[in-house]
Amino acid sequence: MVEAETGEIVDSGRASHPDGTECPPEAWWEALQEAGKGLLDRAEAVAVAGQQHGMVVLDANDQVVRPALLWNDTRSAPQAERLTAEHGGPEAWAGDTGLVLAASFTATKLAWLAENEPENAAKTVSVMLPHDWLTMKLRGATAADATTDRSDASGTGYWSPATGGYVRDRLVQAFGRDLALPRVAAPNEVVGRTASGAAVAPGTGDNAGAALGLGLGPGDVAVSLGTSGTVFGVSDVPAADASGLVAGFSDATGRFLPLVCTLNAARVLDTFRTLLGVTHEEFDALALAAEPGAGGLTLLPYLDGERTPKRPNATGVINGLTTGATREDLARAAVEGMLSAQADGLAAMAAQGLTAKRVLLIGGASASEAVRRIAPSVFGVDVEVPPSAEYVALGAAKQAAWALSGAQTPPQWKTGDTARLTGDAATPGSFRNIVEQYASLRDETSSWAAHQ
Ligand SMILES: Nc1ncnc2c1ncn2[C@@H]1O[C@H](COP(=O)(O)OP(=O)(O)O)[C@@H](O)[C@H]1O
Ligand SMILES: O=C(CO)[C@@H](O)[C@H](O)COP(=O)(O)O
């Protein structure tokens, strides 16, 4: 909860919901009630920012048909391939929807449902995303008058950022028939009221929320290291990258949000930290005690399969392991590998015309000292770390304040001082080697059957 005028945080709440790649939406509603206790009834305006892409399917009575399949569920990878081939390949999809289909996107999940759970598919009359469903619940509305926003619509695979309209043919191709979809609200619209009378803004996807919360400007690229690693910037033109590396999303202000998303980020560090049996701080100390290049160890960090590049069945690979390897090397290899995957994202963004003049590092793993110290050299650009905050939630709050104000543009809130980090000028060669070794391992493994 923030002051609408200044963005100053006055109160906050937090609640967890289940882990995993599918989730009953009711668990989010319970978590929202718990986190919002003592806040929601004091609010003048509210908005929800949530994970993108998750498939929430409802029956004719607006009851949830099955647990939502989330953005990181890869079971619909075969459907992504099939739908892509059936409709003109990657170029056609990028042209129609701004996306080359990967298992994350909602259209592929609908195709999986139609193929694998015909009884559930038969019951389904409407589909929406996690933030749409929570917004509907907050308003006490029905699926018939549910709303979404441009950013979340742009992650479905059946909406066009270029035209601003649904592409019903792609939905029908995926699911086999048409479905009711939420109306795409204007970025600053009041779409309803909560039970206690607060104005409800349209809400947004998590990355668009973070972009709004950070107030990203030209030349800014955010790298968010949460469960997912996301690299994104704000643009005046929609992206349509037929290579599939950059997703052509929309943002929460009426502009566009080209974005690269990897499935493996903070949890890569969690995994190695757990294997080494150390705390976050001890892990950082280990990683920083090793030399750049981790004694020749290179980690390809696709532990949970990967979305960018598209390798849904991939696993992690450690190259260069010898009897001389140390715990320090292992910790450093985890940090360097995870950051190198994000550096691939920065390169893909640059190829779409969004070259980072500064990188803003956010998300849980941006708290890591090792990540902060190593990132500028691996990225090859100075990195700024804004004050630690929940930028997704701040973006939702800014949208709510915007809707309340009735103004043309979002409020300009000050973010606190950022910490500026520069690369290791003393050993630039070692860092070039890290990036080159990583690229070799990435490219060599692309021919492995398990990485197809
Ligand atoms: N000091 C730290 N060093 C490294 N990772 C951290 C640190 N603090 C938190 N994390 C990691 O950040 C992740 C959570 O980040 P967050 O941005 O909240 O992710 P998400 O939005 O996906 O839930 C967890 O994997 C957690 O272990
Ligand atoms: O799929 C994407 C973006 O395309 C992810 O950004 C999800 O929207 C959620 O990520 P986490 O917040 O769980 O890291």
Automatic annotation (TrEMBL):
Transmembrane segments: none
InterPro entries: ATPase_NBD, Carb_kinase_FGGY, Carb_kinase_FGGY_CS, FGGY_C, FGGY_Carb_Kinase, FGGY_N, Xylulokinase
Entry EC number(s): 2.7.1.17
UniProt binding sites for substrate: 52-53
Carbohydrate kinase FGGY C-terminal domain mapped to chain residues: 222-404
Catalytic residues as annotated in Swiss-Prot or TrEMBL: 206
Stored Pfam families: FGGY_C, FGGY_N
Source domain of life: Bacteria
GO biological process: D-xylose metabolic process; xylulose catabolic process
Keywords recorded for this protein, A-Z: ATP-binding, Carbohydrate metabolism, Kinase, Nucleotide-binding, Transferase, Xylose metabolism
GO terms assigned for molecular function: ATP binding; D-xylulokinase activity
Reaction catalysed by this enzyme: D-xylulose + ATP = D-xylulose 5-phosphate + ADP + H(+)
Residue ranges annotated for the Carbohydrate kinase FGGY N-terminal domain, each copy included: 17-203
Region called Disordered, residue ranges: 1-22
Biological role stated in the UniProt entry: Catalyzes the phosphorylation of D-xylulose to D-xylulose 5-phosphate.
Family annotation (PANTHER family): SUGAR KINASE, XYLULOSE KINASE
Similarity field: Belongs to the FGGY kinase family.
Protein name per Swiss-Prot or TrEMBL: Xylulose kinase
Organism ancestry: Bacteria, Bacillati, Actinomycetota, Actinomycetes, Glycomycetales
